Amino acid sequence: MGRSGAEERDWLLQSDFIRFVLEDLGSSEWVVVYDRFDQQGNRENGGLFTAVLPSRLASRALLKPSTDMTFAHDRPSCYITNAGGSEVIRYDRFGQSEGIEPFVIRRWFNDILPAYRELLEEFRLFHNLYHDGGSPKYLMLDSDGNEHVIVRVTGERIEVRLHQLRQFLALKDAHLAVYFDRVRNSTLPIEEIEEGDRCTNYIDGCTRYSLNVSSNDGIRDDYASFSRVLGKRLIPPLPKERSGMWPYDEDEERFESFIIGVTESGDVIENTCDPDLLRNNFGANPGAPHYLTPVFFRRDVLGKYYGAPSKYEVHDNYLSCGDLWGLRMDNNHPTYVVVFLGDLGTDVSYNEQRYWRSFNVPPDGGISTVTFDRSILAKFTDPDRPDLLFKYLYDDVLRKWPKEWGWALFRTLKPEDEHCLKALHVPLTDEQREFDEQVLNLTKLLVDCLNESELASRAGTLPDKPRGIDKLEGFFRQQGFSSMLKHIGFLRDLQSLRSSGVAHLKGKKY
Q1: Which residues are paired to 158 by β-bridges?
Q2: Quick one: CA dihedral 462, 467, 470, 474, positive or negative?
Q3: 362-382: string of b/e by CB count within 10 Å (b at 16+)?
Q4: Residues 6+ apart with CB under 8 A from 383
Q5: What's the Cα-to-Cα distance from 508 to each of 66, 345, 412, 494, 501, rounded to whole Å?
Q6: CB 303 within 8 A of CB 312
Q7: What is this structure's pTM?
Q8: What is the DSSP letter of 252?
């Protein structure tokens, strides 16, 4: 269906694009920093490009609608300038003077190698953006380890989050100049555009553009007229003191309050975890709760961390998020997870404190014997929770078996399967899903990882089509390990449980 006369007129006058420039560009959450406007049939063409412009040049840049740099040379090169009547050859990072830099760099290799685009390195390093090469997103990790999409690529279009862009501009003392040059062809005769609308020049405090509409007579036969809008919009930096970047990040540090006791009437007693307001062994804040006051949490507080083993790892008495942060905790307690009040304020952010607060319960006894021996008596003590003890012993077997036998009992987990060991735990709830996941993890670790080739060569006579457990049983018998045979039954039950109720729909055998 073709456009009406009014729609074709708006198309030719580029009303939609001008609204986008004046109302959305630099005002919305995302800023377009690169785009192409080419259409089949050459109905429109052009592009949108960006450069980082030193703020001292902002006013001068608005004196003309054209670009302030040559994008054909956005790589290190020399340029020639005149100094005292003589030509002087200078070298510049982007072949320009005055410190103007392209924000999106077009890498072109003369149609011999594939062209591509990349963001200004300084911006990527400023926010420590992660990009795996093939992804349409650039990611930033916050102090809690949460991922945030800062740059997204959709076809030719590249967009950047406005806030992070203006943070960068703030510390760089720069504006982002968004340049646009767009041509549209139309079947509408030039006579249907009023004389006053054929040429427009617009300027305000951050935008400058010119729009011209002309006839296509003698140029093209398929379109009667065309328009060209040429201009720029400047996006200012945040004020440095509002950038949130060091050393201007002066937001007051916040701390959550936690339940640390119960009154005789049953009311809970709460106290801040701010370590500067807690009593310690050196005389600080007499009368206040001690830094080592135990705070109790339901065990399912760990569900978030077990559920994302690529980011978090639940260790024996310790929780970590990569190398961003770590929290000492008592997860050897038979019923709860216990953390010292001061550690909550010292080791995790306010957002993490709020998450833990939602699982906080009144105290119920003291810390576990394991944690008391380690933290108070400074004794080396093995864990006693079955999942923590299992991981400790599994690692022990991985290290010691090859030294004793010259080959590994368990094959090394591939990176894609490492989560099986990291996420293994006694179920935190009675949910069927969580139980199934742990059965699957345990089966992979104890059955699927068996080194079948080595076991088979030492197992003696085996049944037809033997499985890994058969080979392990044969090895035990050959070595006279009769006391180990009781574990074969457990492994067979585990494998059957996986087959009858986890890998398939649950049936009678389950």
Answers
A1: 34, 153
A2: positive
A3: ebeeebbebbebbbeeeeebe
A4: 316, 317, 332, 370, 389, 392
A5: 76, 51, 34, 16, 9
A6: no
A7: 0.84
A8: P
CA 54 to each of CA 171, 173, 174, 177, 491: distance values in angstroms, whole numbers, following the listed order: 11, 6, 4, 10, 68
CB within 8 Å of 308: residues ≥ 6 apart = none
| pLDDT of the chain, 510 residues: tens digit per residue | 456 789 999 999 999 999 999 999 999 999 999 999 988 778 999 999 999 999 999 999 999 999 988 766 577 888 788 888 899 898 888 766 688 999 999 888 889 999 889 999 999 999 999 998 888 999 999 989 999 999 999 999 999 999 999 999 999 999 999 999 999 999 999 999 999 999 999 999 999 999 999 998 877 778 999 999 999 999 999 999 999 998 988 767 899 999 999 999 999 999 999 999 999 999 999 999 999 999 999 999 999 999 999 999 999 999 999 999 999 999 999 999 999 999 999 999 999 999 999 999 999 999 999 999 998 899 999 999 999 999 999 999 999 999 999 999 999 999 999 999 999 999 999 999 999 999 999 999 999 999 999 999 999 999 999 999 999 999 999 999 988 888 999 999 999 999 887 767 777 777
Long-range contacts, stretch 277-286, CB < 8 angstroms, 24+ apart: 278/341, 278/342, 278/345, 280/342
Please state the φ and ψ torsions of residue 185, each to the nearest 5 degrees: -100, 150
Radius of gyration of the chain (CA): 34
SS3 for 453?
A: helix
Taking every pair of Cα atoms in the chain, the longest distance, rounded to a whole number of angstroms, is 102
* Token pair listed for 40: 């089949």
DSSP for 287-334, please give it.
Answer: TSPBTT-EEEEEGGGGHHHHT-TTTEEEETTEEEETTTEEEE-B--SS
Write down how long the chain is: 510
Q: Give residue for tokens 């939602």.
A: 358
Q: Go through 208-219 and write b for each residue having 16 or more CB atoms within 10 A of its CB, e for each that does not.
A: bbbbebeebeee
CB neighbour list of residue 68: distance below 8 Å, 6 or more residues apart? 51, 53, 57, 61, 100, 177, 179, 232
- Tokens 């440095």, residue located: 240
Q: CA-CA distances (angstroms) from residue 438 to 155, 375, 422? A: 41, 30, 11
Cβ atoms 127, 140 nearer than 8 A: yes
